[in-house]
Model the fold of this input.
Amino acid sequence: MTKPIRLRAKRGTRRKLSSVTMMDVAAQAGVSAQTVSRALSAPETVTQETRKRIEDAVRATNYVPNFAASHLASNRSRTVAAIIPSISSSIFAETIQGLNETLLPKGYQLFLGHTDYRPDREEAVIKSFMGRKPDGFFVIGTRHTRGAVNLLKQARVPVVESWDWTSRPIDLLVGFSNRMATETMVSYLANRGYQRPSFAGIVRPGDYRAAERRDGYENAMSRCFPGQPLRIHIVSDGEVTLHAGAELLTSLRAAHPDTDVVIFSSDLPASGALLACRRLGIDVPGELAIAGFGDYELAAELQPSLTTVAVPTKEIGRLAGRLLLKSMQGESVDEKSVDVGFELKARESA
Amino acid sequence: MTKPIRLRAKRGTRRKLSSVTMMDVAAQAGVSAQTVSRALSAPETVTQETRKRIEDAVRATNYVPNFAASHLASNRSRTVAAIIPSISSSIFAETIQGLNETLLPKGYQLFLGHTDYRPDREEAVIKSFMGRKPDGFFVIGTRHTRGAVNLLKQARVPVVESWDWTSRPIDLLVGFSNRMATETMVSYLANRGYQRPSFAGIVRPGDYRAAERRDGYENAMSRCFPGQPLRIHIVSDGEVTLHAGAELLTSLRAAHPDTDVVIFSSDLPASGALLACRRLGIDVPGELAIAGFGDYELAAELQPSLTTVAVPTKEIGRLAGRLLLKSMQGESVDEKSVDVGFELKARESA
DNA sequence: CTGTTAGCGCATTCAT
DNA sequence: ATGAATGCGCTAACAG
Done:
C-alpha cells in the first residue's frame, strides 16, 4: 500500500509554536537558512549587503532564535552552571553577580543552583545540571564528593573552583587560602599583644571553608602560642547569622572565660557578637576583642569597627567568568590557578 | 551523477560528543527508544518488568538525558527565567532561593539575570532569555517598559510579577503594596506622637518599589499632617548601602533640622543612619527617631533595634514557584494575584 | 561568499 | 504496552 506520508504528517502534526524560524527569515531576505545562521553568529563572514537584508528580515519577522535547536546542532549550550552553598548569603551573591556581569555580554546564560552547604546536595545539583550540558561549571570550594568530582570531570568542559585553595584543582581555580587568612589574623593579634585567642563560629559539616579557617586558627596557635590549649567554640548546625554570633558570645564566655580575643568564622556572627557586647556592656576591645572574616559592609560601619579579613568577592566572580570564557572559546589558559589573596583589615575591634 | 550520500556523510560527520543516547539505553535494554522515553517521563505507562530493565540499562550505560533535544522535540524547556534588580541585594536573593527550592525538585531549572535597577536593561535581559524559551518568568516589580511587557506577553507562558502591587498584572502577581506599607508606617509614627516625619533614601529612577514608598509617605503626610510641607531627602543614584544611610543622615539634618523621625526607603540606609547616630552622639529615638523598610536581620540586632516593615521575602519566592508550577502544568490558577502583605515591626528606634 | 544536505537526540503521532 | 516513522530548528560539513 502506498504511504500517504505527507498527508499523515499534515494532520495532527506537532504544533509549531515556535512561530517564526530561521527559514522564515531566510525566505524574507531571499537567502538560505545557512546564510542567516552565519549572518547572526559570524556577521563578518557575510557581505554588508546580505547582512543588512538579513537584519531587516529579522526585524520584520520578529525572529527569535531557538537556542535549544542551536545547542542540539552545535553541541554548545552557551550556558554556565553556577552552584553555590546559599544564594541568600550575600557574600556568594556578589560573586554570582560578578560572574553574570562577565558572561551575559558574551551570550552565556547562567543556571543557578544551591546546596545548603551539603556535599550530597552539591552532587545532586551538579547531576541535575548535566542534562543541560552547560559549557562550563562554577562551584564554590575545592572539596567535593567523589561523585561530584567525577561528574565535573566527565562533563569535559571547563570547571572553576573558587573561594578556597588546593594544589590539585579539578581544572581552574580562582580562590585564596582560608587557612592562611586565619593564620594571618592570629599572627596579627599575637603581635598586637593578645594572649588567649579563641575561635568561634558556625562550622557546618559541609562548610569546608569555615573548617579551613578553624584549622588555620589551630596552626597559628601552635606556632604563636606553643603549648597553649586551643579554645574552639563551634556549633555545627544552624544558619550563619548575627543572632548566632550573639549566642556564641555568651556561651563562649562561659566556656572560655579567659579569652581576650575571639576570631569568628565569619563577619556575620562577629558583628552579632559585637552588637551583643554593647547590649551586655562588654567593652570592645578593652575587655574582649573581636575579629571577623569576610569584610561585609557592616564591618566598617559598626562601632567599634570590626577587624576582619577582606576577600575580593565580586572579583572572584569576574575572574572566574573571564577564565571560563577563555577556556570555553578553546583558548588555552596558562594560569590555571589564580590566588586572589585576602587583606587584613585592621580596625578598632581588635 | 550518483550521490554517494552515505559515504559523504560518513567522513567528517558531526562528532557525536553527546556520548550515550537514549538509543544506546534502548539497545542495552532490548526495547525501542520510545519505550525508554516513556519509562523515564511517565514510568507508570510501562510494565514493571521493562521499567526495571530500562533502569538497569540507564545505570549500566551511565545515560544522561539531553534536555536540549527534549526541549526541541517537546517544546518545553523545563526552565524558568528569573530577573531581579540585583543579585547581591540579599533581600532578592532570599526570594530567588525560595523560588529555586520550589522549582528544582520539580525538575525546573532557574536562569538568573539582573538589571541593576534599569528598566532598559530589564528589557534587554528578558529579550536575551527569549531564545531559551523558558516555561515561565519571574520578575521583580509591576512596572516595566512597554517592550518588556510585550516580550513577556508574547512568550505565552506564565509570568509572575512580584514585590509590588498592581490591579492589572501581566499574568500572575505575588506581592504587596509598598505604598500602603509606608502609609502604615507614617500612621503608626503619627500615633506615637511624632510631628515632623521626613522620608530619606536612595530612589533610583528604575526602582519603582522605592518610589512607591516615597509616594506612600506623601499620601500619608497629607492625610496625617494636612498642610505640612513634605520633607523628602532622596538621592537618585548610588548603591543602597549602610554607608549611604550615614551620609543621608548628615545631609538630612542640615536640610530639615526640625525632623523628629526619618523613614528610610530601606533598612540598609536606616541601619547605617542608626549606627552613625551612635558615632555622632545623637540619641535615638529621643533626639531623632528612625524607621526602615524590609526587616533585615540587622534591624533586630541593632541597639536601639530598628522599627521597620517586614516582608515575607522567601515566601514570595516559594509562592511564586508554586503558582508557576501550577500554571506551567496547565492547571488554571484561580487566584492570579496574591497579596502576601507586610507587617509593621514596632521596635525601639521609633 | 553562499547554497545543499544531513543529522544533533528526543517526543509526538499513529499503528500494532 | 510497545514500536516505527517523522520532525522540532538549527548548524556542520562540504561543494560550488
About this structure: The first helix of chain B runs from residue 5 to 10. Residues 305 and 348 of chain B are 5 Å apart (CA to CA). Residues 8-9, 11-15, 31-35, 38, 45-47, 50, 69, 71-75 of chain B lie near DNA strand D (CB under 10 Å from a C1').
